[in-house]
Amino acid sequence: MNNIADIEQNAFRGLSSRTKGDKVIWSIVILLALVSLLVVYSSTGSLAYKMYKGNTEVYLFKQIVFISIGIGIIYFAHMVNYNVYSKVARILFLVAIPLLVYTLFFGVKLNEGSRWIRLPIINLTFQTSDLAKLALIMYMSRLLSKKQDVIKDFKTGFLPIAIPVGIVCILIAPANLSTALLIGATSMLLMFIGRVSMKHLLLIIGIAMIPVMMLIMAAVFQHSNNGGVSTSTPTAKVEGKSRLFVRVGTWISRVEHFMYGGKDIDDDDNYQINQAKIAIAKGGVMGLGPGNSEQRNFLPHPYSDFIYAIIIEEYGLVGGALILFVYLVFLFRSIQIFRKCPYAFGAFLSLGLSFTLVIQALANMAVNVNLFPVTGVTLPLVSMGGSSFLFTCLAIGIILSVARNVEKAEQAGINN
């Protein structure tokens, strides 16, 4: 027995010695992975029972596989020198643009939006917006680090950074407006930290507010035109209408429901929000306990978009607050990496990627508690595995790569 214990201890020490970077972020990854296993298993139990004839562990095993692959991605990504990511950033960005165009016109159509492309041979789908988001942040970090001397100039400093952001957001918006808005907000925040002129940032905000205000005005007009009764979100296929036109109707209805509330309880958005509210109300302060969720049987997508409502139902407001605190600690540690990194590219890269993950997490939580209109964003590292989960792991691996090099530089400074 002692020999077995010694072998396990030596193996743990060997793995710990090879694992570099911020230990707190590593701990957060493990913690959120464990939470993901518990909540995904709980939220998919009924679905797995129906789909797989009583086998309730199917999705649990799938999640274990995704988590194992994801941690492997984090490990190998963090072992790569982050300067390599600067070299591949431009290539990755140039690959992402045609993929977004292809997805927009020929992508797999789900929920009236083309967000996915199907990979040949393995027959799997993935969201090209996840790849584009990662590529954009890497490319922006590269540009910001190289253009600090001319960053205040509109033509040579601002436009080369703003144009890629605009292209990505415009290509993503027709199928996934919420993701495009989150990417735009993250990019603005990164540009602000990168010392882009405030008047140039205000120009972007002014331009972006035009379609947003048009959307709000359309929602107000639609509500008043229907006698103060909120209309249903169009979900059926509309013949003769473009995908963009159908999505505009969806956006308007979602904004209308958020502003005024819906009268039709059977409407998709109202049903989701109402079920999420019931889950949160049942959870109370301490929750119903692990695996005791009742709303998982009624709430659509309890394992992805609305997994935070299930967390609160089972673990209460205490559990929900703890998850929020974990993401804020992750952001704080990333800011520490940003402050310690001696090179601009690594600093912008770690901070930009952490912004994307934390802002996405906050958006998901806001939707679950009805502080934001319904979107399709998942809770990073917690929602059931998919392409978004793996790209999240890759982003965390890159952040840890920067942290590993910062740690190495600090050790070298101490030794000298």
Overall description:
With 416 residues, the protein is mainly alpha-helical. It has a domain of 208 residues. Helices cover 71% and strands 3% of the residues. It contains 14 helices and 3 strands. The chain has a 3-stranded antiparallel β-sheet with strand order 1-2-3. A hairpin with a 2-residue loop joins strand 1 and strand 2. The two termini are 44 Å apart.
Read across the widest sheet, the strand sequence of neighbours is 1-2-3
The assigned structural class equals mainly alpha
| Largest beta-sheet details | 3 strands, antiparallel
Amount of helix: over 70%
In N-to-C order, the SSE pattern is HHHHHEEEHHHHHHHHH
Low-confidence runs: 234-246
Beta-strand fraction estimate: under 5%
Q: Termini distance? A: 44 Å
What overall geometry do the principal axes of the alpha carbons give? globular
